[in-house]
């Protein structure tokens, strides 16, 4: 099995994307249970991508996304998913 790349490496191409993209940059975010995640902004080319929040827990990588989403909404979605798993 191929090891998972660090999130900033996996999405490094976004920093140089020449098309339309979110004004919010790719950045670390603090999630529920003190988990570190990353906000990944949306980009547009032939179509627009989902903005995402991505985080690693144990040996799994999780993400939530929404088409042309914003950081605040995605952090709320990620926190909801994390807290739902605490039951």
What would your notes on this structure say?
This protein is an alpha+beta fold and 87 residues long. Helix content is 21%, strand content 31%. It contains two helices and four strands; from the N terminus they run H-E-E-E-E-H. It has helices spanning 7-10, 71-84, and strands at 27-31, 35-40, 50-57, 60-67. A four-stranded antiparallel beta sheet has the order 1-2-3-4, with helices on one face. A hairpin with a 3-residue loop joins strand 1 (27-31) and strand 2 (35-40). The chain is globular and about 40 Å long. The mean pLDDT is 91.
Task: Reconstruct the topology from this structure.
Elements: H1 7-10, E1 27-31, E2 35-40, E3 50-57, E4 60-67, H2 71-84
Antiparallel strand pairs: 1-2, 2-3, 3-4
**Beta-strand segment tally:** 4
What's the SSE pattern? HEEEEH
Described by strand count, sense and barrel closure, the largest sheet is:
4 strands, antiparallel
In the sheet with the most strands, the strands line up as 1-2-3-4
Please supply descriptive tags for the structure shown above.
single chain; alpha+beta; four-stranded antiparallel beta sheet; 4 strands; 21% helix
Give me a quick take on this structure:
The protein is α+β, with helices and mostly antiparallel strands and 87 residues long. 21% of the residues lie in helices and 31% in strands.
């Amino acid at each position: 099995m191929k090891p998972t790349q660090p999130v900033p490496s996996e999405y490094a191409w976004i920093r140089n994307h020449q098309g339309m993209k979110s004004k919010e940059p790719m950045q670390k975010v603090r999630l529920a249970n003190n988990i570190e995640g990353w906000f990944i902004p949306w980009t547009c080319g032939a179509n627009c991508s989902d903005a995402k929040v991505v985080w690693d827990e144990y040996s799994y990588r999780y993400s939530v996304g929404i088409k042309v989403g914003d950081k605040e909404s995605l952090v709320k979605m990620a926190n909801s998913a994390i807290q739902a798993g605490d039951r």
